[in-house]
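Hey,

The postdoc asked me to send both predictions to you directly instead of through the lab channel. I've kept everything plain text so nothing gets mangled by the mail client. Protein one:
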Amino acid sequence: MTDPLYRKEILRLAADAHGAGHLSGPHASGTARNPACGDNVTFEVTLEGGRISALAHETKACVLSQASAAILGHNAKGLAREEVEALRAGVAALLSGADAPSPPFDVYAAFDGVAAHRNRHMCVLLPIDALLRAMDSGSLT
């Protein structure tokens, strides 16, 4: 039997760690922490016209947060803040039993097994929150 929290898809995403590292000249950064478990995610971004032109993350967190950060690292370039907010709402809905967000973020469907574990929802949402904070900060934090 496979644990829905640690499906192969999630483990692959976490191992990929797409976007992990630092930008040479970020416009802003934002950090989100989960005090319950110690997970910590920081996103650095450069913005052009209100859209993400480059991003990188440092994720010191569980596999669920690592996988979610990798999805963003791979797919969030070009998004405006409103689109990241909509993504967060879509992922939160998925964790409550709704369908996955639209492509390219339909890969979040791998987290549908997390829905039954409310205490782990924050793990999946934490990277999105860090990205939103980076977009809001307007300067390095």
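Protein two:
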Amino acid sequence: MSTWQVLITSIPHRHEKLLELLACLDEQAQAGFGALLYRDDLEVPYGDKTQALLEAATADYVSCADDDDLLAPGAVGKILAALENLPQYVGFRVRWTRNGVLQAPVIHSLACGGWHDRPERLERDITQFNPIRRDLALLGRWEGGYEAERRWAAQVRESRRVGDEEFVDEELYYYRECMQDTFKTDRKPLGSMPELPSYPWLRQIGPYA
């Protein structure tokens, strides 16, 4: 069983970006790491897919990765090293770009005490991108589409059960925002699901598994 699993939701419209993410993870994959993937053709809301992944996960720790984002080089090893101390949560810094242009610094840490957009940086405490003990992640429920991650984070925060953190003071996640390809982009089903390479650390669930 993996120590940590990354949960990925994807749609065929982002296939090339998904391939890039999977290649990034494959370069870093090692013992203790795994990933779960749920692909659909716009049939299922983002939050419901993530909830299904969370319930199907078998690792002690889980986090999410958007299919158009990347983990920084060496991030998997650094996170697994942090998990050796058995924290409830792993915090880190995030590199945020918009259409390829670097944006304000972003920090994900329980010390932030919530989600705050400061003039000098963005601060987030509990987010889906950070490894968290799976039993604590299940204290919130993923449902619906837009801002499902905020609703889940608020429920986990309100439980007051997450307070122990191992913080890695480096940019470990690359949040790559593209204004022409967002959650709100108007799309129609493609009617087919592209083939994916097979990886020993990756398992698929859902109707196209």
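Summary for protein two, as requested: Helices lie at 15-28, 46-56, 75-83, 134-137, 148-158.

Thanks,
C.
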